[in-house]
Amino acid sequence: MSRTLTATTPTQVGRWGEDIALTILRCNSYALLERNWRPHTEPGSEPIRGEIDLVMIDPEMNLVFVEVKTRSSELFGHPLEAISRDKSRKLRALAYAWSRSHDTQDYRSMRIDAVSICGNSQHFTFEHLTGVA
């Protein structure tokens, strides 16, 4: 996993941000279950489009769905401003879809967190908000 930002496209910047978020969360005793999870469409059901960036377990055994927003600068606003009401609704639907397809009985609760990373590999900010959606 590269922690140096040599990205030029939004996809590369996003991947770099996810790498940083994963590293910092692991250093804070979070365990990774899945990364970049997308739901499978079940026959007869309305498809849910989207992706969960990180599915993790926090130190208290809570199931945490993490949305990572990365920007190289705040020129176009803070990264967390990209989590709109519609995005929150989609994150909840994705979290429930993940929960329906996995055994979740071992976890105390579940929540959706947001992580913001802004900057570059020499200087960046990291912000972690719990229970955002």
How would you portray this structure in words?
The structure is a single chain. With 133 residues, the protein is an alpha+beta fold. The protein has a single domain, classed as Trna Endonuclease, Chain: A, domain 1 (3-Layer(aba) Sandwich). 26% of the residues lie in helices and 29% in strands. It has 2 helices and 5 strands. It has helices at 10-27, 85-100; strands at 31-37, 52-57, 63-71, 110-119, 124-129. Strands 1-2-3-4-5 form a 5-stranded mixed beta sheet, with helices on both faces. The longest helix has 18 residues, at 10-27.
Describe the structure in brief.
This protein is α+β, with helices and mostly antiparallel strands and 133 residues long.
How helix-rich are the residues, as a percent range?
25-40%
Biggest sheet statistics:
5 strands, mixed
Please tell me what the overall shape is.
globular
Q: Count the helices. How many? A: 2
Tell me which CATH architecture applies here.
3-Layer(aba) Sandwich
Order of strands across the main sheet: 1-2-3-4-5
Proportion of residues in extended strands? 25-35%
Order of helices and strands: HEEEHEE
Q: Say what the CATH topology is.
A: Trna Endonuclease, Chain: A, domain 1
Strand tally: 5
- What is the CATH class? Alpha Beta
Low-confidence stretches are none
First-to-last CA distance = 29 Å
Task: Give the helices and strands, then pairings.
Layout: H1 10-27, E1 31-37, E2 52-57, E3 63-71, H2 85-100, E4 110-119, E5 124-129
Parallel strand pairs: 3-4
Antiparallel strand pairs: 1-2, 2-3, 4-5
